[in-house]
Amino acid sequence: MTKISEIISLIEDFAPLHLQEGYDNAGVQVGDVNAEAKAAILCIDVTEAVIDEAIAVGANLVISHHPLIFRGLKKLTGKSDVERMVMKAVKHDIVIYSAHTNIDSARYGVSARMAQRLGLENVRVLAPQVGKQVKIVTFVPEEYADAVAQAMHAKGAGNIGDYDSCDYRMKGEGSFRAKEDAHPFVGNIGEVHREPEVRLEVIANVADKDAIVRAMIAAHPYEEPAYDVLTLLNASPYEGIGVVGDIQPMPAMQFLALLKRQFDVDAVKYCGDAEKQISRVALCGGSGAEFIGDAIGSGADVYVTGDVKYHEFTGNSGRIMIADIGHYESEQFTKDIFYEIIRKKCLTLQPIMRNRKLNRLNFLYK
Q: How does pLDDT run across 70-80, given as a tens digit for each residue?
């Protein structure tokens, strides 16, 4: 049988928790992840109906987009919806896990799925994440460079887009003098020693930094390796909020009709010039009004998102067309992302799809 923790690892490989925004509470909400997974429900929002369905079908895992516990709980008295759901989940040994802004910012996450539905090309991140990477530099004897690099790569260093095991090496010469209490790998106590070395550099996620440094020290032959950890201000080309891409040019009203079909909505709220041609589209799942400026800066003809307020519409109607398809409607395919991640890796899994309009998607283990 598959443990719940293994399923969670699959999701976090796709959408690591370090990608979530500072205000978010993605991750395990309730329950023991070491339990064996019996069945699971995938949803956008955790509701009492979802918990009741999990109990009815024998599911002990609920995977949601929006976190059940967002601002914390101080009491468990059953007086609020969230308290009742937490108590019911604990009573029935149900694990609740949420992937929220981390899956929004993942390379092939929520907004990328929206772009796929519309057939966008030349897709790139709208508001890239900044400051989530570091460069780790160390200096190692030439013959040990491969072993040290491999130890760092094994902990997640050197992943750049579709490439892994990336590093940079430059040959040089290190010098040091071992003091009386030292146990030098090379050289003698009290003598200045010069050693041919390689300057080894790797890029890493901030969240993986400590594990990578520990692996480097463990693999390094020196008693006290020298190393630097440098903060990078690079904007990620792969991770961030929203996307922008190109579409076959079409009149604005034709594009709005396309939105209705592809996202199964009855109406689209919009502002802007209804006579314009649409050839470049910016997208953001959920509540994306704060990124209207990024959409304008990207050169998009239209910005598609949810939860746009009146003044956000009227204040930008002369600068860009804005199309509000609804919060849930823009994020509805998150369930499909969960499903595909898990089904691809868990061959013991037999999925059973449920009506998208019911805000749930079930699969059972057999």
A: 988 888 999 89
